[in-house]
Design a protein that fits this description.
- The protein has one domain (2-27, 38-77).
- 45% of the residues lie in helices and 15% in strands.
- The chain is built from two helices and four strands.
- The strands form two sheets. It has a two-stranded antiparallel sheet with strand order 1-2.
- The longest helix is centred in the first third of the chain and has 24 residues, at 2-25.
- The chain is rod-shaped and about 75 Å long.
- Bound molecules: zinc ion.
């Protein structure tokens, strides 16, 4: 049983070592989240979906992800 236990200890040690190496190798721990490069992102007024501003629909100062959501608010407000 002595050798078996030794093997387990060695395996656990190796596991920790590789984990440690892997953490050390990561240059920036938190790489910046994938952004729409150089584009401002706005969120839909209805569903809060984030969309690049140039793709969003703008209506009286608010942004919408799609026509359906824009129309939805329009009918609610009036
Ligand atoms: Zn939406």
């Amino acid at each position: 049983m002595g050798i078996f236990r030794l093997l387990i200890v060695a395996a656990i040690g190796w596991l920790f070592y590789t984990l440690y190496r892997r953490i050390q190798q990561q240059p920036g721990k938190n790489p910046p989240p994938a952004k729409f490069e150089g584009e401002e992102v706005v969120s839909c007024r209805v569903c809060a979906l984030h969309i690049p501003r140039n793709e969003a629909l703008r209506e009286s100062g608010h942004y919408y992800c799609c026509r359906e959501h824009r129309d939805q608010v329009d009918t609610q407000d009036s």
